[in-house]
Amino acid sequence: MIATLTLNSSLDLSVRLGRIDYKDINRVREIQRDPGGKGINISRIIHRLKGETIALGFLGGWTGKKIKELLDDEGVPGDFVWTAGENRSNITIDLPEKAGQIKINEDGPRINKDEMGLLIRKISSLSYGDFLIMSGSVPRGVGEGIYFRMIRIAQRQGVKAVLDTDGEPLYLGLRAKPFLIKPNIYEAQRLLERIHNKPVRISTEADLLNAAHYLSKTGVEIVIISWGSRGIIVTSKGKFWRCRPPINSRVNSALPECLLSATTSRVNSATTSRVHSALPECLLSATTSIVHSATTRLKYTGVGAGDAVVAGFTYGLSRSERIENCIRWGIACGTAATLQKGTKLCKTKDVKRLLKKVKVT
């Protein structure tokens, strides 16, 4: 079972305007409302794939009721703590004439001690072999060490903890030695600056390798650092592997930087042979594959594509599928998400269609 934890859930509103007039009323051409938050996105996709999942977190107020209503409409299982405060709304305004987007995010509710205690009880009920994906920002009233605490609780239950966050929550969470961390190059740089209490510069591949090596020494089993279009660095148990996206792939501009290379990677066979025994199945596939998806024509840069890749990837892992199939699921979900507007995420029919086109060698 894959549990997701979203501490700062949101109601995501995607608004499309026909025109912009600063002196007159601007009419909305289209508005879309979806339950939001990285963990919630992952649970939504896993449910669509018929996987076993549950979304955990906080809900409150009218916004919280709307989030729950939307999740219920999709049939996504959830076990939330209801708070005295109101969930936030995140608004994305698509400007006309390809002028870009405006993003407006609220802070979210303040969580009290009793509410946090109820959530901890839910985390404590997870079973051995489950996955707990912790991602996103920390709400007001919750200490920045909350992920440290959650990781330790998960570990006592035999649950594999995955941490995807930034700043102080990442720094403190690292001390609990989660199963996997996934910073991008900028988050890794900030993390190392916090650890060493001095400026750190990561600008070359050698810098990135050194950063991954250092972080792996903290007790984390898997460290993945992404580097935009240049790919990712993976280290596990003293072994390193470099992933780069294939040249001229049409999906490069649409997939998120943190997972682009994991979903479109080319591996030198000599390098591959050195890491087969070191990387776990789900990550080895992401770092020993050639993905041919240039035939896919992308219409939109969908919000939540990175969450979709994580969802598909973990879905394959939860089914104990072969390495190649784990990455196929991840790539198919991530690419399918880019075909959707706003936060609709991927459609199952698109995932299955793309799954047949993805070739991993």
Tell me about this structure.
The chain is an alpha/beta fold and 361 residues long. It has a domain at 1-142: Ribokinase (UDP-N-acetylmuramoyl-L-alanine:D-glutamate ligase), CATH 3.40.1190. The protein is built from 13 helices and 13 strands. The protein has helices at residues 38-48, 61-74, 113-124, 146-156, 167-174, 185-196, 205-216, 257-263, 269-275, 281-286, 305-318, 323-337, 348-357; strands spanning 2-6, 10-17, 28-36, 53-60, 78-83, 88-94, 101-105, 131-135, 160-164, 180-181, 222-226, 232-236, 239-243. The strands form 2 sheets. It has a 9-stranded mixed sheet with strand order 5-4-1-8-9-10-11-12-13, sandwiched between helices. It has a 4-stranded mixed sheet with strand order 3-2-6-7. Helix 4 (146-156) packs parallel to helix 5, helix 6 (185-196) packs across helix 7 and helix 12 (323-337) crosses helix 13 (348-357). It starts with a strand and ends with a helix.
Number of strands: 13
Task: Report the sheet-strand fraction.
Answer: 15-25%
* Backbone shape: globular
CATH topology of the domain at 1-142: UDP-N-acetylmuramoyl-L-alanine:D-glutamate ligase
Order of helices and strands: EEEHEHEEEHEHEHEHHEEEHHHHHH
What is the CA-CA span between the terminal residues?
28 Å
Secondary-structure arrangement, i.e. CATH architecture of the domain at 1-142 = 3-Layer(aba) Sandwich
Low-confidence stretches: 243-299
Class computed from helices, strands and strand pairing: alpha/beta
What integer is the average pLDDT?
A: 80
Main β-sheet, spatial strand arrangement: 5-4-1-8-9-10-11-12-13
Gyration radius, to the nearest Å?
20 Å
GO cellular component, one term: cytosol
Pfam families: PfkB
Protein name: Carbohydrate kinase PfkB domain-containing protein
Domain Carbohydrate kinase PfkB: 15-247, 302-347
